[in-house]
Structure formats: C-alpha cells, structure tokens
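quick one before i forget lol
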Amino acid sequence: MDNEINTILVSQPKPENNKSPFFALEAKHNIKVDFRSFIHIEGVDLKGFRDQRLNLPDFTAIILTSRKAVDNFFRICKESKYNVPDTLKYFCISEAVALYLQKHVVYRKRKIFHGRQKFIELMELIKKHKSETFLLPSSDILKDIIPTSLEEAGINYTRAILYKTVISDLSDLENVTYDCLVFYSPAGIESLFKNFPDFKQKSTRIAVFGDFTKKAAENAGLNVDIGAPAPNAPSMTGAIEIYLKSTN
C-alpha cells in the first residue's frame, strides 16, 4: 500500500542503550527507524559568558532545569577558575537532575532540593527560600513558564545563557526520504527548513510531540498526521503505533 509507513526518522540522537521504545516498535511492525539530531547544544565560551557581566560569587543558590545546565555551569566555573562554595544551594527540577550533580560535587555535603518533574513543583521549594540570590543557567531557548513563575513570585534571580541550541548540518540527507519524520521541538522544525528550504511534504507523514511543536509545524505549512501526547497515547511511540495499525 502506498500509504504504509516503512521508514521513520526520529530527529533526536540515537539512544545509547537498546531500551528505547522505538526499537520495540521497529521489531514489532517490521519497520526501519533511524535517529538523527536535527539540533545540537554548544556551550557558550568564556568570553561569551563574561560579556553577560555576571559575578558568580554574588549567587547563593542555583536553579538547574536539566543535565545540560549542570554540566555547563560547572564547565564555566572551571574555565573562570571559580571554586564553587560548599554553601551553594541547588534547586533541581527533578530527582534525576539532582542525582546527576554527583558527577561534579560530593552529594551528601551539599544543600540540594528537587521537584518531581515540573517547574511549577520546584517553585514551591524556591518560594520557601526567597532570601536567596538565584542563578538560572539556561540555553538561549527558555520556556516562558520559568521566568514568568520566578518574576510573579518576586524571586531575586539572574539568567545566565551558558549554552545554545544550534541547527545541525543535515546535508547528507538531501537525497534520502522517509515515510515519517518525528519532531520533539520547534527547533527541529526550524532545522528542517534551514537545511532544506525547498522541502515539500508530499506523502511524508509528520509526527510531533507537544503543542508548541505542532504549532511550529503548522506555521511552516506542514500537515501534522500524528500528535502526542494524546488521551489514548501519552507517548510518541504509542501515537505512532496507533497510526501504524490503521495504515500498515
């Protein structure tokens, strides 16, 4: 059938282990799933950091929303020869990010707080420490809810852009076609059209995760065929599987 999906390109790095649900989907439906980062992260260099005119010793607490934020904060500290004090308080968006701190500090000797996964949950902890001066390491792309929540609560914080989202070179895919492209962020959609300005969707199915990604795809003139999360499919692979059952 012409509308079958036999090949899928996921716009993310290939998982380091074989536990990704995409591998199970591949085996179950006898399809081919490839992975390729449409975007990647590059750290801001020391000059770029200094141009922001931030004085690290001024901060008594730090808000960490990802592992990338953790790595780049300690990278900048090392490059600027700043010894992070034992008294610094860490506010992490999740337990996984909090535990990741062990890569850089002696965990049991630090004051570490964490939410469950959502920033709104972490805000409840931050509000209890309003006297602190917070540093917020981030990418050049930041979800609006983060600065909005901090400002509405009257938190004394400063944002530091320590890494940037950069569009990857996909020129080697110019003559390669897939039945389905999977996107997880608006930046992925942007990368598609920066790499291939003349891209025409034709029969290619577009799968997106999240409302912002869906909006970016539609604004770019793409027809979204598969969306997640959905009531019957909270995961991307779940949504794709439902679609596969109707087409393959």
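fyi Residues 7-38+168-247 form a domain with the Rossmann fold fold (CATH 3.40.50.10090).
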